[in-house]
UniProtKB/TrEMBL annotation, chain A:
Name the record gives this protein: Sarcosine oxidase subunit beta
Gene Ontology molecular function: nucleotide binding; sarcosine oxidase activity
Record's keyword annotation contains Flavoprotein: yes
Reactions catalysed, as given in the entry: sarcosine + (6S)-5,6,7,8-tetrahydrofolate + O2 = (6R)-5,10-methylene-5,6,7,8-tetrahydrofolate + glycine + H2O2; sarcosine + O2 + H2O = formaldehyde + glycine + H2O2
Membrane spanning stretches: none
InterPro entries: FAD-dep_OxRdtase, FAD/NAD-bd_sf, Rhodanese-like_dom, SoxB
Cofactor (UniProt): FMN; FAD
UniProtKB/TrEMBL annotation, chain B:
Species, as recorded: Endobacterium cereale
Lineage: Bacteria, Pseudomonadati, Pseudomonadota, Alphaproteobacteria, Hyphomicrobiales
Residue ranges annotated for the Aminomethyltransferase C-terminal domain, each copy included: 891-977
Transmembrane segments: none
Protein family per UniProt: Belongs to the GcvT family.
Pfam families: Fer2_4, GCV_T, GCV_T_C, Pyr_redox_2, SO_alpha_A3
UniProt keyword annotation of Oxidoreductase present: yes
Protein name as catalogued: Sarcosine oxidase subunit alpha family protein
Automatic annotation (TrEMBL), chain C:
Gene3D superfamilies cross-referenced by the UniProt entry: Folate-binding superfamily
Species the sequence originates in: Endobacterium cereale
Source organism phylogeny: Bacteria, Pseudomonadati, Pseudomonadota, Alphaproteobacteria, Hyphomicrobiales
Pfam families for the chain: SoxD
GO biological process: tetrahydrofolate metabolic process
InterPro entries linked: SoxD (IPR006279), SoxD_sf (IPR038561)
NCBIfam families reported for this sequence: soxD
Protein name per the record: Sarcosine oxidase subunit delta family protein
Gene Ontology molecular-function annotations: sarcosine oxidase activity
Amino acid sequence: MRYSALSILGQALSGNRGWKPVWREPQPKPHYDVIIVGGGGHGLSTAYYLAKEFGIKNIAVLEKGYIGSGNVGRNTTIVRSNYLLEGNIPFYEFSLKLWEGLEADLNYNAMVSQRGVMMLAHSDGQRDAFARRGNAMRMHGVDAELLDREDLQKMMPYLNYDHARFPIKAGLLQKRGGTARHDAVAWGYARGADSHGVDIIQHCEVTAIRRDEKGGVTGVETSKGFIGCNKLALATAGHSSETARMADLRLPIETHVLQAFVSEGIKPVIDNVIVYGGGHFYISQSDKGGLVFGADIDYYSSYAQRGNLAIVESTMEEGVSLIPGLSRLRVLRSWGGVMDMSMDGSPIIDRTPIENLYLNAGWCYGGFKATPASGFCFAHLIAKNEPHHVARALRLDRFERGYAVDEAGKGPQPNIH
Amino acid sequence: MTSSRIANVGLVDHSRVVKFSFDGRTYKGFEGDTLASALLANDQMLMGRSFKYHRPRGPVTAGPSEPNALVTIGKDARTEPNTRATVAELYSGLVARSQNAWPSLNFDIGSINGALSPMLGAGFYYKTFMWPAAFWEKVYEPVIRRAAGLGKAVMEADPDRYEKSWAHCDLLVVGSGPAGLMAALTAGRAGLRVILAEQDFRLGGSLLSETAMIGGVSAPDFAAATIAELADMPNVTIMPRTTVFGWYDDMVFGAVEKVQKHLAVPSADKPVERLWRIAAGRAILASGAEERPLVFGGNDRPGIMTADATRTYLNRYGVATGRKVAVFTNGGSGYRTAADLSARGVNIAAIIDSRAASADFAPYGVRVIRSGSIVDTKGGKRLSGIMTNRFGYDEMIDCDALAMSGGWSPIVHLMCQRGARPVWSDEAQAFLVPDVGPLFAAAGSAAGHATVSECLRDGAVKAHAAVEAVGRLVGHVNTPEVEGEYDPSFAPLWYVPGARSKAFVDFQNDVHVDDLALATREGFGHVEHAKRYTTSGMATDQGKLGNVNAVALLAGMRGVSPAEVGTTTYRPFYTPVSFGALAGTARAEQSRPIRTSPLHGWAKKNGATFLESGLWYRSAYFVQGEEKTWRESVDREVLNVRQNAGLCDVSTLGKIEIFGRDAAEFLNRVYSNAFLKLPVGKARYGLMLREDGIVFDDGTTSRLSENHYVLTTTTAYAAEVMAHLEFASQTFWPDLDVCFVSTSDQWAQMSLAGPKSRAILQKLVEDDLSDASFPFLAAREVQLKGGLIARLFRISFSGELAYELAVPAGYGEAVADAIMEAGRGEGICAYGVEALDVLRIEKGHVTHSELDGRTTADDVGLSKMMSKNKPDFIGKRLSTRYGLTAADRLQMVGLKPVELDKPLKAGAALLREGVEPSMTAGQGFVSSACFSPHVGQWIGLAMLKSGRERIGEKILVWDAVRSSEFLAEVCAPVFVDPENLNLHV
Amino acid sequence: MASLITCPHCGRRPKEEFSIRGDAVPERPEAAASEEAWHAYVYLRENPRGAIREYWHHVAGCRRWLVVERDNLTHEVFAVTDAREAATGDAA
């Protein structure tokens, strides 16, 4: 059923009785060409692009909970491509371009809102680092503007410009960056994939990976029985190590919890996404009025979707330091997402040493914005057995070869990326 | 008047009038009122507008779960939007305004949305606003955003103070109703350290509105007596106005105390709110139960509230919510409320009981409609009538308020914040607390008990268990007799059939039954999907009132049990907490420590301009005379250092003292270059790698005696290097005899650089400083004239003859003054980190601008620092990987713009001349740049692909974000004294 | 865990006094070990869901590195040991 203002009007006049399920609830078939493990944003977008762009029709997405129950529904909804490194910019820019066409492509309003992403610099060195990043972006044709303090004061008068430790010196603005309605991304991809014949099977947990005598993958054992496949694709960020272990694979990943927060709804005061360079704080305001924000991970390994008070407090400290006017507003809810923190802070989209097994993992803080490109590039890899050209740097063997994509320059310690 | 105060009823102090204002009108309330009770006493039932349809709303509760009665409290920078009037303690001078209404609360244009509601069903926005694509940001979204949110924030700095504190106890009791009080009393009498936390400003919980007699006295009197006894116990801490909002690991609870939120102008001597981190041995959740609204057509009109709220306004605040109140109930609660109202002379329009029969007594003369239901209501800003239906027959009954009861749900929130899910009980028709282990138990109605006597007993029983668990003897606690209890049982009623208008589930977000039905029809029947699709439970009350109804409705629509539907996830915060309380004192300059160097005073009196550098304030440059720009000062300082001498504060460098028999061996393993044979009295430049072969940090290390070294780090990496050394020592090589201490703050260190530095220093130092006796890289203790022992290092960052002198921090300023005085004849100047940076760029020394966590030693021309002979050092093994040794890596070079006046800036990109900019065309970037007064133009250090082969090449400096591009010549990264002659004079 | 941690030297202390490095299971190989062994040590992690060993540094306390044995799903702490003791079996 095509969505439009007209369809809404038509339904309104007939008591909204005609709306159909957005996706089917099929029983699993005995065998698929491709099985994707993980019904989150990346898994669903992979299925969608595999079916739509690469002509593969016999696809299943297996989700142990409900679709969108992982990080696609537990993030701060930021989309951007303001990266520094050659291995990252083309990939995230490809993703941003897909975001820009997403609603038209999916016929689903994921509310991609290009409100601008502003990264603040608080020292001359940080300003120069942002200039370097901005130039790298511009070289690739990505929009970037380096704004001075006066420009920023006009845009965001409520910031603390003269903070004793972190005065605001400059800002790197990507106007095309912004936010999207996170849940709707999962639902839109699910609806799109379903309409191309993909079987989305919820509450179907993969319990083992079956391999033939040569080691190649032939299917998965699940809570709904054995399902065979030609190719198995893992898109279970947060739990990648656990799923990969079923195929005896160790990954360059540790699992950590990142908390995020939303305030009570208030009338719009913050127009764009703001990223604080004096800490890790980032904030935007949703179309419902809630301030959506976050900062550091909890630093210890965790598979629990909840964090602790110390990080809650440090997040608010950074928030109030940057935006003093937050002080009397109230935080409504905190939540935690478990994430694959990789060894260089960058993701992995690659084949594995195991025949027929494909891996999409290691998204660290940044998986949401990558959702479209991650799916597209993973689909490309699965369909053609070769990486999409924008994802060539995101290989699994890059650590062995000495080609880490280390955006933060922190080295092989996952929790500081 | 319809709702009104009843003289001399309730716990408010009728003799103490409190004046306040709402929407500009002045009202009078009493001490002990909430804003909501005071407004009701003044017949102001309309208190807010809902989010989506802007429907007129009054309070539906008398407590923290309130979804409707949200107002903005306070003025100017103390403005607080979305404050729940039902818990806002009334104070003299309180200023409240309604919100989310325009032009006024009474007449709100936004209510037109209600007429459009068939088109604004659940998730409608996902299906439209897509065409044309450019219209989203320009047209649709601005309109949607105008409707966003409820109250307005002022975004001004908060004038008030906040603070944080830890508290420790054997037993934390959350809630001071019958169960909480008995738990605290039992544990308190047994000698446990007890904290009793109550979110309300008055302790007692449900006892404050209870009419049953306890132990022969009224329930409030019983509460008062118990509280008085607790207050006398030194081991019991009573914390009113304190909401426990979160349960974290290790039995740490987050709580926020409203210290001065009930004052118009708080005292500056105290915080307005205090964040408590309560480390509890055990805890008892006595948070009570929530009465559920009934879901029927038109159930949201102002005047419709829970029976419990009606009763609380009556018994605690002495406010009748109407003159003629109807009751709609599925159990005993409605009868109890009717009885209390009737006893206070309030007319009962009728009791509509959904059940066919019950043993409950209606007040004398009150009509009971059994098997009855309400299918619609009427009234604008206030309820004026209800359409009842019994066996298909309608009847309109006039009334101005309705008390509804849909049964009770235990408040299980805190116990479910750590992953455990509440458990559905068919018997209780409610979700009950999960078993979360022995340390945290629920008591009273939070544990599913319904009567006062059960709650009292259960509080004592649960505390008893806690006392025994810590090995104490339980004192004697009598559970008092309760007279006048009612039958709290009820028959489930999740949806009242036949609704003729919207039946709301989530009041604030205007989610009604049809929305849930649509969600189910479209495949969003999973409770999490339904929540996210319809926004049910996502308002500021987080579904405290509506979630259980929503779950049961979904269950009905899906044809399964509520157990199968389950609940959404419970997460902090139980009720919203201010940013201010969570940030505490750590805001503005208190958010991070301010570190000033021991030479800060010296720099200040020499005219320094300071620069924030990490946590430090460092002297950036020293303005003299008529200098108008920082460049003039820096140029002068640089030239003066190269011609005469300069003194710079380098105290911020990390300094680590290393001791032990194996110190040399240890250093040899943590540095990439050799350290075993460093002689006593010598300094050596050292490079540390990470285990992945990338440069970690650099600095000099000096051997002061056989087993004593002092290692310096860069300012930025002082803490990281210390942690790194401790890790290596404690985990890799615990057998090595070595130990460290950071002395970064103990020493003032200054760099005296320039050709005349020796002459100046010699005036102050007893020891002979001639090149022969104190050559380049000498490092040892010297005696200053006057006797002070100092450490002197002949090392140079500038490339000139230079020394670093370290003295105990307290002597820093005096010694620096003495050097300036001694150098006056030689033309000494103070120089700052800006000049220091110019001097090191001219000399081609690297900093973390080059060592950005991605560079190898070879990248910056330091391959000679990678020992070939040592069997092992940190980073050795992986430094030879292909990618780290590839020929096309970025290598450090020097850059000089071809045209002398072109300003080179760090961060500019490099491109081949004539090539279109693209990612693949990128050749590198400028890592450091400055104007060099020595060279007479801008110079820089750059990281350039295969750079060292490209000396002499012209390359395009492309700085698009600063709108500049020009050609520069690639050169060797040394602009002064390439033969190092100056170092050895 | 993670709210309060019992340092074997300092007692029960709040989380914010510690900095956390990560998995404490991999052991630094001999210098001459294979490149695969070094790659595995530096980059590969078991990362199980459940019981783990993790390095915590008592930065704002005794400055000892500790091995914290805990469950990363329930956040229950089983044991906290000084790293030297964990490495050598001797008390630090």
